Amino acid sequence: MDTATLAVVSVSMCAELGPVLSALMVAGRVGAAMAAELGTMRVTEQIDALRTLATHPVDYLVVPRVVATTIALPLLTIGSITVGILAAFVVGTYLLGIDPVYAYNNMVQFTDPADVWQGLIKSVVFGHTLSMIGCYKGLTCKEGAEGVGRATTEAVVYASISILISNFFLTLLLVKVLS
Questions:
Q1: Which residue numbers in the chain have pLDDT < 50?
Q2: Partner of 95 at 20 to 30 A CA spacing, among 3, 14, 54, 163?
């Protein structure tokens, strides 16, 4: 059976699905955790205590989180791309009966390095964006447990919407730049 299934999966996983789905999962898990942790620190006046000790809260609390997420998300994206392509290969060859050599050669022929770079650049931007939103929402939450809960929910929603909107514009930009 001759088909371009694996080539289509490879290009879509590298350029779109890998970075977007990884970022959405990280936004739901890590973005919420950042907002909740920093929000709790704000409500319990730990951030004010840092200021009293002449420690700038952004330098001490925000920068490490942003740097870590910006580095970690491309690594997670590489993992999701790899797993997605391997799963498509297994399903295509074993369940659909596609010739494995043909599928692999077709995938290599039609997947450009620009597709991989596009996904990695997007994941860096998404990691930075979602961590900044999570930290901002945590640092600016209102008093009490209700404020922390609201900040956590808003962090996930805003980060998810930001990822989807920025994906559109990044795709437009990166297709022009990397082509």
A1: none
A2: 14
